[in-house]
Amino acid sequence: MQVSRCPKCGTRKTKLAPRKTLSDNVLSSLTIYPFRCQLCASRFRTFLGCRANNPRRSFERVDVSFPVWFKPRLSSSYDMGQEGVIDNLSIRGCRIRCTTPLTAGSRLEMEFQHSNCSFPITIDEAVVRLSGENTIGLRFVRLQRSDELRIRQIMDLWLPETAQPIISVRRR
Question: Which domains does the chain show, CATH number per domain?
Fold first, then answer.
Protein backbone atom coordinates (compact mmCIF):
# COMPACT_ATOMS: atom_id res chain seq x y z
CA MET A 1 0.00 0.00 0.00
CA GLN A 2 1.28 3.45 -0.93
CA VAL A 3 1.62 6.01 1.87
CA SER A 4 -0.34 9.21 1.28
CA ARG A 5 1.52 12.47 0.69
CA CYS A 6 0.32 15.62 2.40
CA PRO A 7 -1.22 17.90 -0.27
CA LYS A 8 -0.08 20.99 1.67
CA CYS A 9 3.60 20.29 2.47
CA GLY A 10 4.32 17.17 0.39
CA THR A 11 5.73 14.98 3.18
CA ARG A 12 4.95 11.29 3.51
CA LYS A 13 4.81 11.66 7.30
CA THR A 14 1.06 11.22 7.45
CA LYS A 15 -1.17 9.15 9.69
CA LEU A 16 -4.69 7.82 9.52
CA ALA A 17 -6.83 10.31 11.48
CA PRO A 18 -9.86 9.60 13.66
CA ARG A 19 -13.19 9.71 11.83
CA LYS A 20 -15.22 12.47 13.46
CA THR A 21 -17.95 13.58 11.06
CA LEU A 22 -20.85 11.87 9.33
CA SER A 23 -19.14 12.35 5.96
CA ASP A 24 -15.98 10.67 7.33
CA ASN A 25 -18.05 7.64 8.35
CA VAL A 26 -19.96 7.48 5.06
CA LEU A 27 -16.80 7.80 2.96
CA SER A 28 -15.05 5.14 5.04
CA SER A 29 -17.53 2.61 3.65
CA LEU A 30 -15.91 3.39 0.28
CA THR A 31 -12.45 3.06 1.93
CA ILE A 32 -11.84 6.81 1.68
CA TYR A 33 -10.32 7.82 4.99
CA PRO A 34 -9.15 11.04 6.66
CA PHE A 35 -5.41 11.46 7.16
CA ARG A 36 -3.44 13.98 9.21
CA CYS A 37 -0.02 15.35 8.31
CA GLN A 38 2.32 14.92 11.27
CA LEU A 39 4.31 18.06 10.42
CA CYS A 40 1.88 20.74 9.19
CA ALA A 41 -1.29 19.31 10.84
CA SER A 42 -3.21 19.44 7.55
CA ARG A 43 -6.19 17.06 7.41
CA PHE A 44 -7.16 15.48 4.08
CA ARG A 45 -8.94 12.40 2.72
CA THR A 46 -7.58 9.73 0.46
CA PHE A 47 -8.60 6.38 -1.02
CA LEU A 48 -7.03 3.47 0.86
CA GLY A 49 -8.53 0.52 -0.94
CA CYS A 50 -8.92 -1.56 2.24
CA ARG A 51 -10.77 -1.33 5.54
CA ALA A 52 -9.07 0.29 8.53
CA ASN A 53 -9.89 0.71 12.21
CA ASN A 54 -10.60 4.16 13.62
CA PRO A 55 -7.40 5.37 15.35
CA ARG A 56 -7.44 7.07 18.73
CA ARG A 57 -4.86 9.81 18.09
CA SER A 58 -4.42 12.24 15.23
CA PHE A 59 -0.71 12.77 15.84
CA GLU A 60 2.12 10.30 16.30
CA ARG A 61 4.25 10.75 19.38
CA VAL A 62 7.98 10.13 19.39
CA ASP A 63 9.87 8.87 22.40
CA VAL A 64 12.26 11.53 23.67
CA SER A 65 14.00 12.45 26.89
CA PHE A 66 14.12 16.24 27.20
CA PRO A 67 14.43 18.14 30.49
CA VAL A 68 11.41 20.39 31.09
CA TRP A 69 10.55 23.18 33.51
CA PHE A 70 6.90 24.09 34.15
CA LYS A 71 4.69 26.09 36.50
CA PRO A 72 1.01 27.00 36.83
CA ARG A 73 0.02 29.53 34.14
CA LEU A 74 -1.05 32.46 36.30
CA SER A 75 1.39 32.10 39.17
CA SER A 76 3.77 34.91 40.08
CA SER A 77 7.09 35.18 38.29
CA TYR A 78 8.82 34.39 41.60
CA ASP A 79 7.37 30.86 41.79
CA MET A 80 10.14 28.32 41.38
CA GLY A 81 8.15 25.96 39.19
CA GLN A 82 8.77 22.24 38.81
CA GLU A 83 11.12 20.08 36.80
CA GLY A 84 10.48 16.91 34.89
CA VAL A 85 11.36 14.98 31.76
CA ILE A 86 9.39 14.90 28.52
CA ASP A 87 8.88 11.20 27.69
CA ASN A 88 7.12 11.65 24.35
CA LEU A 89 6.32 14.57 22.06
CA SER A 90 4.01 15.43 19.17
CA ILE A 91 3.33 18.75 17.48
CA ARG A 92 0.25 19.22 19.68
CA GLY A 93 1.27 17.80 23.07
CA CYS A 94 3.56 15.71 25.22
CA ARG A 95 3.78 13.45 28.24
CA ILE A 96 5.92 14.55 31.19
CA ARG A 97 7.36 12.34 33.90
CA CYS A 98 7.38 14.31 37.17
CA THR A 99 6.66 13.95 40.87
CA THR A 100 4.24 16.89 41.02
CA PRO A 101 0.57 15.85 41.15
CA LEU A 102 -1.61 18.02 38.89
CA THR A 103 -5.32 17.89 38.16
CA ALA A 104 -6.81 17.53 34.70
CA GLY A 105 -7.74 20.93 33.32
CA SER A 106 -4.85 22.75 35.00
CA ARG A 107 -3.09 25.28 32.79
CA LEU A 108 0.69 25.44 32.70
CA GLU A 109 3.47 27.31 31.03
CA MET A 110 6.56 25.31 30.22
CA GLU A 111 9.99 25.41 28.69
CA PHE A 112 12.18 22.58 27.41
CA GLN A 113 15.47 22.16 25.67
CA HIS A 114 16.05 19.42 23.12
CA SER A 115 19.84 19.70 23.09
CA ASN A 116 22.57 21.38 25.11
CA CYS A 117 23.39 23.75 22.25
CA SER A 118 19.84 24.95 21.51
CA PHE A 119 17.70 27.71 22.92
CA PRO A 120 14.74 26.57 25.04
CA ILE A 121 11.36 26.05 23.39
CA THR A 122 8.63 27.89 25.30
CA ILE A 123 5.01 26.78 25.47
CA ASP A 124 2.95 29.77 26.65
CA GLU A 125 -0.02 27.62 27.65
CA ALA A 126 -0.63 23.90 27.94
CA VAL A 127 -3.62 22.09 29.44
CA VAL A 128 -3.28 18.97 31.55
CA ARG A 129 -5.39 16.33 29.80
CA LEU A 130 -4.33 13.32 31.85
CA SER A 131 -2.76 13.06 35.27
CA GLY A 132 -1.49 9.70 36.46
CA GLU A 133 1.06 8.42 38.90
CA ASN A 134 4.25 10.41 38.18
CA THR A 135 3.10 11.39 34.65
CA ILE A 136 0.99 14.12 33.11
CA GLY A 137 -0.32 14.37 29.56
CA LEU A 138 -0.44 17.86 28.07
CA ARG A 139 -2.05 19.48 25.05
CA PHE A 140 -0.33 22.61 23.76
CA VAL A 141 -2.82 25.48 23.58
CA ARG A 142 -0.70 28.56 22.91
CA LEU A 143 2.86 28.97 21.69
CA GLN A 144 4.83 31.34 19.50
CA ARG A 145 5.00 30.49 15.80
CA SER A 146 8.81 30.20 15.96
CA ASP A 147 8.58 27.63 18.79
CA GLU A 148 5.91 25.69 16.88
CA LEU A 149 8.21 25.54 13.86
CA ARG A 150 11.06 24.26 16.02
CA ILE A 151 8.84 21.46 17.40
CA ARG A 152 7.91 20.56 13.82
CA GLN A 153 11.61 20.39 12.92
CA ILE A 154 12.20 18.01 15.84
CA MET A 155 9.28 15.85 14.69
CA ASP A 156 10.58 15.89 11.11
CA LEU A 157 13.93 14.54 12.33
CA TRP A 158 12.56 11.95 14.76
CA LEU A 159 9.55 10.59 12.85
CA PRO A 160 10.22 7.94 10.21
CA GLU A 161 9.15 8.76 6.65
CA THR A 162 6.15 6.49 7.08
CA ALA A 163 4.57 6.98 10.49
CA GLN A 164 4.09 3.53 12.03
CA PRO A 165 1.64 1.92 11.99
CA ILE A 166 -0.42 3.69 9.35
CA ILE A 167 -3.38 1.34 9.48
CA SER A 168 -4.49 -1.77 11.17
CA VAL A 169 -6.66 -3.83 8.88
CA ARG A 170 -9.97 -4.97 10.34
CA ARG A 171 -10.64 -8.67 9.96
CA ARG A 172 -14.16 -9.90 9.26
Answer: 14-57 (no CATH), 62-157 (2.40.10.220)
